[in-house]
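Team,

Forwarding the record for the chain on the shared tracking sheet. I've put the sequence and predicted structure together so nobody has to dig through attachments.
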Amino acid sequence: MKTALIVDNIVTVVSFVEPPSDEWIEVPDHVLPGYRRLPDDIFEAPPVEPPTIADVRGEAGRRAEALVAEYLVCERETWPVQIQEAEAYLVDQTAATPFLTPRAAGRGVTVAELATTVIAKRDALAAATGAIYGAMDVLLAMDPIPADFADDSHWP
């Protein structure tokens, strides 16, 4: 048996244990705090708040973060150095590569190969995040923002 305490026709608390007082009434299983009690003990869900700009930005951020989630933050913090060294090396093979050289050796590849990989990954991440933030911009331009803004159909 599910019971609820109702104040001013709003369900404030629900419980599955013996109600502590007679003020509690039995309610259907779907009823949650915030539901409104209507006549004849009909319960109505609270209105859904429309999505906000912050909601859409948060979803974009979640999706962008998922692209790099396999990497630790401390490794991601080295990406600007890796990119700078890779760009410099691909222009001038005598450029200093204090970060890339030991990484290339550890992987058994040349600095040139690693530099090419770094640039390719940079470009792929830029394209993927650009697509996510482009989709975010489309959603933010909608009035109203669709309730299903987080659905995959709105995102790349």
